[in-house]
Structure formats: structure tokens, C-alpha cells
Write a structure and sequence with these properties.
Number of helices of chain A: 11
Largest interface: A-B, 21 and 21 residues
CATH superfamily of the largest domain in chain A: HAD superfamily/HAD-like
Organism (chains A, B): Paraburkholderia ultramafica
Oligomer: homodimer
CATH topology of the largest domain in chain A: Rossmann fold
Largest sheet of chain A: 6 strands, parallel
Distance between the termini of chain A: 23 Å
EC number (chains A, B): 3.8.1.2
Number of domains of chain A: 2
Protein name (chains A, B): (S)-2-haloacid dehalogenase 4A
Shape of chain A: globular
GO molecular function (chains A, B): (S)-2-haloacid dehalogenase activity
Enzyme class (chains A, B): hydrolase
Chain lengths: 242, 242
């Protein structure tokens, strides 16, 4: 059984694990799509936008492109998706596109996230380890009262998960041993990469991250150190009082 | 008059401005010096240790040495000061030196710091912009309840204040204009460097940072945008309710 008393810091994936990106992005898309008379369902557009996420980061993970923060990739991906839907992007003002791009800064937490994080924070260092950039995480945390002790992640180490250096360098920044750090994510792939770097792992199931027909990440695909129904459940499993 | 309504984020120097490093380091030194039978006053030793701070960082600021985090410099400086006092450092265990080096992680805030930061946090993004490394700032914040929204600073940008890139890159990370960011420090030199990069500036006087005979930084040496008696006073000047 995993020795939970050894854990000193918890690192959290954020998009999908702590916040509901799909509903939040669709909410900000709706008035934009109406204003621009773009006849696409807001959830479908959000999914299309998100599908550009991994390929865009792959350019950087592979070394073909130097590191740029996620706001830049989101903005490029937005133009790509609009173009794919037949929109003439030069007819839309840069300000309007910038504002829409900030939808990713304004996402709502899942109902258990804030309480779970507050409980976990009393016993552990809690830090975000997201591919989102620092200002994105900061805007999100201020709006949603996410009580991070620190905002770590891609921009701090200038690399994108699941590149091993993200986990390795973050553990080094924390001044801890890998086994003293636990990665918390709703994505088996993130946990698999963290485990290869020696971190402990906690799976949190988020069955509607991708909407009602979600097929991926519905179950733990390895025996992770912890598997939890939500962040409150994880807090209970890690011995944090309510 | 400075337009305070434009300010969105406050960046804080930490050693001396938010926490009392001299008393804290001397407190941890006392049992060590006794145990090792080193006959030096703990405040004198703390001052000697701190005097190595700027020259050590200058090696990195000048480009003669690649960036290393402050914990590494503090550890090297400790050996240097011990040797200067005639101590045979090879007679002291690495664990004991490491533990003493963590004195910088356990500093107490000035009496007004936590309340002032909590008031400021309600209206602004508050982030540390220290030369201290992330784990140092994190340990300090957890112990002293410093409510940072984010821990920024030297390790994130891999450069030491007052190098201009520290201020410029941090403002860029925040996604703000320089004039929307205010540097808060008890040191005129830090503020002068921030002003050259276009940031707003707030001086907080800390007349006993260097002990009862302090001669430097007792007064604002330029007309900074704000000059405050402490962080509570700054919160009041910036319109934050108690």
C-alpha cells in the first residue's frame, strides 16, 4: 500500500481535473458565435478548438518549435478552427479574438474542487502543474478562488506535459524527492508520464470532461497510488479532515 | 498623482520587505554556533552571511556563471563565512549545513505583513518577486501564512534582480503592461531598476532590517509612486478596506 505519509506536495493537472473547460469555453463562445453569425454549436466548436491543443504542443515537445506559452497556441488554434468553419478571420477584430481567447482564463471549477483543495492545502503543498501559462492560471485562480500555494507548470520549465522534464524539473524546483510528490490528474496519460519520473499518482475521474458521450479516461488504466471520485474524496483518502 | 486604479498586480520584494531575515537567520544560527563552539555573535554572523549575497549573485548577473538558485548560493556563502571565521568546515556534517541553510526558508514576517497582504490580495494580484528560489518562498509562505497568488521571481526567469530582464519578463508573464504592475520594496535600488522598466513603484520603510544601526534605505531616494510606513499603510493608500 502506498505510504501517504511520505507525500509532501501535490501537483494538479487543471484543465479537466480541477476545472470544466468545455462548459466554460462553450459559454464564452455562444455570444461570439451569435454576433459573428457563425452557425456552429458552441460545444462542437469548443471540442474542435480543444482538438488542436495536442498537435500544437507536439510541435514544441518535438523540438520543431521553441517554447511559446499556451495563450499563443490557443490564439493560433482559434484562427485555425474559425478558418476550418469557413469564417473569414480578417473580418474579426484582434480585440474580439483576444477576448474570446481569454475564455480559457475564466473556467469554472468542478463543484468539489475548491473545498477539496482547501482541505488538501492544510496538510500538503498544493501547486498547479498545467500546460496553461501562468497568467491564465492566475486569472482562473483569482476568479474561482483556487487556493494554490504556487503556480508551476509548462511556462516555469518551458516545456509541455507529458515531456518528462516537466515532472523532473518541477520536483527539483520543489526541493523534494520524486516519491514525495504526487501528481493528481483525470488523465491516465499524464499519470503514466509522472510515474515514469518516480512521482506518486492519484487519478480523479471526471466522466463528463468531454461531454455526455465521453469514452476516454473513464477508468484508471493502471493501479495508481490513489483513485478518487473527486477532490473531496482524495482529501479523505489522504487523511485531510473536512 | 499616480493613477492607482490602473494597477492590477503588485510584485513584492521579500527579504527585508515582507520578512525579517536578520532575526530569523540569527535565531537558527544560535544553537548551531553553540553546538559547534563557534564564538561569534549570531547577528554578526547573519550580517556576514548576508554580505556574501550580492557578490555571489553578481557572478550570475554578469554572465560569468550560469543561473543557479539562491539555495545553492546561500550554501556556498555559508561555507565561505565559516571558513573566514576559522572554522574547519569539513568537520561539520552536510546534513547540519543543509539544515542551517534552510534558515532562509523559515523567516518570520514583519508584524504588518500578513494583514497587509490579505487586504491587498482582495483588490490586486499579489506575487513575490524575490531573488529567493521557489521552494524557499513556498516553505516560508506555508509557515508564515503569506497569501501569495503566485510565486514569481529569479528562479522563474533564471536571472537575479536588479537585472532588467527580471522585471520585464515577469510583466510579460503576467500579460500586463508595465504601468499596470507595481513593485513593492524596502530597497531604493530595487525600485529604481523596476522604474527603468516602466513599472510603478512603492517604497516601504523597514528601518531595522539591518539591525538598530541601519544607515541605508531609511528614506525614499526618489519620488516613488507610493511611500508607506508598512504594508497596512500601503493597503490603505491603495484603497483596500481593512
Amino acid at each position: 500500500m502506498t505510504n501517504r505519509s511520505e507525500i509532501k506536495a501535490l501537483l494538479f493537472d487543471v484543465f479537466g481535473t480541477v476545472v470544466d473547460w468545455r462548459s466554460g469555453v462553450a459559454r464564452d463562445l455562444r455570444p461570439f458565435l451569435t454576433r459573428q453569425a457563425i452557425r456552429v454549436d458552441s460545444f462542437e466548436f469548443a471540442d474542435a478548438w480543444r482538438r488542436q491543443y495536442a498537435p500544437a504542443m507536439n510541435e514544441i515537445r518535438s523540438g520543431r518549435r521553441p517554447f511559446v506559452r499556451l495563450d499563443v497556441l490557443h490564439r493560433e488554434n482559434l484562427l485555425r478552427v474559425l478558418t476550418d468553419y469557413g469564417v473569414n478571420v480578417s473580418s474579426i477584430s484582434a480585440d474580439e479574438l483576444d477576448e474570446l481567447n481569454r475564455a480559457w482564463h475564466h473556467l469554472d471549477p468542478w463543484p468539489d474542487s475548491v473545498e477539496g483543495l482547501l482541505r488538501l492545502k492544510r496538510r500538503f503543498v498544493i501547486a498547479s502543474l498545467s500546460n496553461g501559462n501562468i497568467s491564465l492560471m492566475l486569472d482562473m485562480a483569482k476568479r474561482a478562488a483556487l487556493p494554490w500555494d504556487a503556480i508551476l507548470g509548462a511556462e516555469v520549465v518551458r516545456a509541455y506535459k507529458p515531456s518528462p522534464q516537466v515532472y523532473v524539473e518541477t520536483v527539483e524546483i520543489l526541493g523534494l524527492a520524486p516519491s514525495e510528490v504526487c501528481m493528481v490528474a483525470a488523465h491516465n496519460g499524464d499519470l503514466a508520464a509522472a510515474r515514469l519520473c518516480g512521482l506518486k499518482t492519484a487519478f480523479v475521474v471526471r466522466p463528463t470532461e468531454h461531454g455526455p458521450a465521453q469514452k476516454s479516461d473513464l477508468h484508471a488504466e493502471q493501479t495508481w497510488d490513489f483513485a478518487a471520485a473527486d477532490l473531496n474524496d482524495l482529501a479523505t483518502q489522504l487523511g485531510c479532515p473536512t
